[in-house]
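LOG
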Amino acid sequence: MSVKKIQAVCGFGCGSSLFLKMKIQDILKEHKLEAEVFCGDIGTCTSVECDAIFTSTELADRIINRTTIPVIAVSNFMNKAEITEKLLSFFK
């Protein structure tokens, strides 16, 4: 089984996506799951190979029609329970 690749996306790929990336990594560690998590920006995220894109609800609508992989919208990057639920659902 190959390691999943998860892209955390924000407008420029260096602000809120970094925060989301760190949250995802913490949750993966807590649940003993493995994935490569990296940051991306709204303009180039669909051209980078990955298994899922995690992003804000505001940006998800701009990405979802440009890709065939799951785009997982997170409404509150501070809500660990929300991110955990969506991340674990992705792994099922």
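LOG (cont.) second protein
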Amino acid sequence: MGSKTPDFDVMDDAMATVLREKTEQERLEIGFGMWHFARTMIREVVRAEHPNWTDEAIQRQVAKRMSHGAV
């Protein structure tokens, strides 16, 4: 049984238009907001999965997950 690559659009045309109209700073702020949201969500998932871990251990795991294991 072969694997099939998922077929999906990376970005909606309407969203691409909206982002093209943003300044560089606005796009960076959007990207940072998305990164911050993802970090917060991952931290809460890790905390729920490992309620006995220290904050330091949780932060290490968050960094590992966000860097795809590079940290």
